[in-house]
What we know:
The complex is a heterodimer of chains A (309) and B (363). Chain A is mainly α and 309 residues long. Helix content of chain A is 69%, strand content 0%. Chain A has a single domain (46-300), classed as Orthogonal Bundle (MetI-like fold). In chain A, helix 4 packs parallel to helix 8, helix 5 (118-130) packs across helix 8 (170-198) and helix 10 (215-243) runs antiparallel to helix 13 (278-300). Chain B folds into 2 domains: 4-233, Rossmann fold (3-Layer(aba) Sandwich), CATH 3.40.50.300; 240-359, CATH 2.40.50.140. Chain B is built from 9 helices and 21 strands. In chain B, helix 5 links the parallel strand 7 (154-158) and strand 8. In chain B, helix 3 (107-121) packs across helix 4. The radius of gyration of chain B is 25 Å and the shape is elongated. The interface between A and B is medium-sized, with 20 and 34 residues. Chain A: This is Sugar ABC transporter permease. Chain A: It holds the Pfam family BPD_transp_1.
Amino acid sequence: MTATSAPRRAAAPPATGGGPAPARPLPWLLPVLFFIGLFYLWPIIDALRLAFTDASLLDREANFSLDAIGAMLGSAALGTVLRNTAVFTLGSVFGQLLLGLAIALLVVRGERNNLRGMLVLRTLVLAAWVIPGIANGVIWQMLFSEAPFGAINSTLRLVGIPPVAWLSNPDNAMMSAIIATVWQGTAYSMILLYAALRSIDDTLYEAAAVDAATPWERLWFITLPELRGALLVNAILIVIMTLNTFDVIISLTGGGPGRATEVLALYAYNTVFYNFDLAGGSVLSILLMAISLTLAAIVAMFLPRSGRP
Amino acid sequence: MSELVLDGISKSFGDTEVVHGIDLTVAENEFVVLVGPSGCGKSTTLRMVAGLEAISSGELRIGGERVNDRSPGERDVAMVFQNYALYPHMSVAQNIAFGLRRRKLSRAERDAAVLEVAKLLEIEPLLDRRPRALSGGQRQRVAMGRAIIRDPQVFLFDEPLSNLDARLRLQMRLEIKRLHARKPVTTLYVTHDQTEAMTMADRVVVMNEGRIEQAGPPMEIYRNPRTRFVAEFIGAPAVNLFDARLTGGSDDGLWIELADGTRLSVPASRRAGCESYAGQPVVFGLRPEDIVIEAGDGPVAPVQMVETMGAETLAYLGFGGTEACARLTGDSVPSRGDQVHLRLGLERMILIDPTTDRVIGAA
């Protein structure tokens, strides 16, 4: 049987894509190249140029210098900032993935059982995502507020738990920043994973049901392996988004107390706009980009390759 | 004992009842095929047996125990799906072994069980592959392996061959039958293909619009259909049906008068059942193999179209006011336009009462 069903067209050259490539592709690519160049490449190259100067916001007259690179990489704050960034990114990404997956599983399960209100639930979760980061920070600042009207603390007080210093205690501030970011970013993961969950073949679950699989086994043997691609793509995207986050933090804690929540993106922002150190900010931006690209490349290595599961 | 009993099983979606009180007993190790057109409720019935659909009313018993409220995994049934539903990220061996994970087997015992099933299905060389690297026929075997290894009380097949090409379908049909002969299990098999039903079943159950039209051994269903639906659905090419009238002669018995005026004498052996229909319109049915071209004093008909198939030839004849299909064996092939004499096997004719669509004289 294997002999009759084996493919027999080994002699034909493999097709390279959908149809013949145009003889001169450049004119077709030019508009895309132009816009990518203008809005992406040029700013990156300019930041790279500025990193090798002594430019400041007040004095655009820039001379070649390696001082900014030395000063930034040697600065005492960088270690703290990088550690903050790592904690913030890891916490937010895992939180968003887990919570997003949990809600997506809940919604899909609800829909499968024809439960009412699933559309409303999806919309509500998504609503968090359309709130701008700055507004999100302000909202959570009010919730976390340690004044008598602070929503969370007054609720805690109602059930007899002593108030928590959400933002003023350096040990809690990072957790609060992560909570605010996860709350907002969960919607994104949820929608992506929801779509991926919906595309899993239902008969796999039916086969598993006949094979007496428990809900955990179904999650472990079917759902998670089937979601692997979506989870990884989702992880790449939110790692990059989270690394670049500074709007939530600037409005929630401003990076404080002290440097307790100052992440790399915020540090770069502060360097340029508070210290007027354009060159230093450019060095930090390039560093941030390098970290993003490295992490994305690492995650991408685990993506399922076509033709091999 | 692993007898499967459906006792008045019904299924409703909201207010619409789609399966109306199915009564069916599949004896131990019997191979029963549920056949019918799409939408007749056969798949829903099978899914109720598997536990994938809730049973609206009636009782389902497996091995004498009521299983209505058990989950699919607790019913000790195995199912082969139309799209095979193999776990895509597991190897063939892992797919087959999946049903064993709850039995406390050592690794060696499990591997031995997988190997035994793989040998039975001739898929040993594929054990390390992933499902996507398999052909349709190979996937089909793996799906069966996954079911066989569990040694279930009841085997369920949901149109397992309809995703295969015609040639492979024939081959797998034979193989499933061979497998069942070697390793008998109580089996319920759903298909829309009457050929599959005829060739594979110990007993065929024809369903239509959520009801069982007739159940019986294949030849019984073929020769003695109880309704017009069964007569038309079973058999390929389909039975020839003619509008006709039964007339009583002045002295000698009964005649069938076709729309074009042809008069056929009802043979003495069939007279008893239909005498009471004398003078009434009937539908007269004749299987294609009961029309034979033979010189003699039979009716004459023009050949309108000929299909040669090698071992047999289908001739389409202008007869009885419509077109009739004759299945001819032998090498004498008529050509289009010929006028041929027919010999009709009237002892095996099927007479249908057009007011009830029931076959006259059927039990």
